[in-house]
């Protein structure tokens, strides 16, 4: 993306079309994450605790993060998942990891 830097050092944004493209990219990323979380929760809807409560539920959204795309940087709020299931081998709680390839959703080592 091209940007114009003025004499005083401030940057002028490209054009209206650039903003439209960035907004479209933001909406597509948000929709992809929402669909992925919806599918994950739907697949695990039958898993419940002793009281009949679901072990995997939605829990709002993470704080907004900036993702750099070909259209330029866009801010995306990823949905949160509260997964209360426990891995029997390690004793740690299981977690939702997005397959969308975003760095902030990848497991940390």
TrEMBL record:
Superkingdom, natural source: Bacteria
Q: A Pfam family matched by this chain, by name?
A: Transposase_mut
Q: Which UniProt keywords apply?
A: DNA recombination, DNA-binding, Transposable element, Transposition
Does the record bear DNA-binding in its keywords? yes
Enumerate the InterPro entries for this protein: Transposase_mutator
According to its UniProt entry, one GO biological process term is:
DNA transposition
Hydrolase is among the record's keywords: no
Q: Which GO terms describe its molecular function?
A: DNA binding; transposase activity
Protein role: Required for the transposition of the insertion element.
The record's family statement is: Belongs to the transposase mutator family.
Protein name, please?
Mutator family transposase
Q: Which organism is it from?
A: Streptomyces aurantiogriseus
């Amino acid at each position: 993306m091209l940007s114009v830097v003025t004499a005083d050092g401030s940057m002028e944004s490209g054009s209206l079309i650039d903003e439209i493209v960035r907004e479209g990219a933001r909406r597509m990323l948000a929709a992809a994450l929402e669909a992925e979380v919806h599918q994950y929760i739907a697949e695990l809807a039958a898993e419940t605790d002793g009281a009949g409560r679901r072990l995997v539920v939605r829990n709002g959204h993470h704080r907004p993060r900036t993702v750099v795309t070909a259209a330029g940087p866009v801010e995306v709020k990823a949905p949160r998942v509260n997964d209360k299931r426990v891995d029997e081998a390690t004793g740690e709680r299981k977690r939702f990891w997005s397959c969308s390839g975003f760095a902030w959703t990848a497991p940390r080592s």
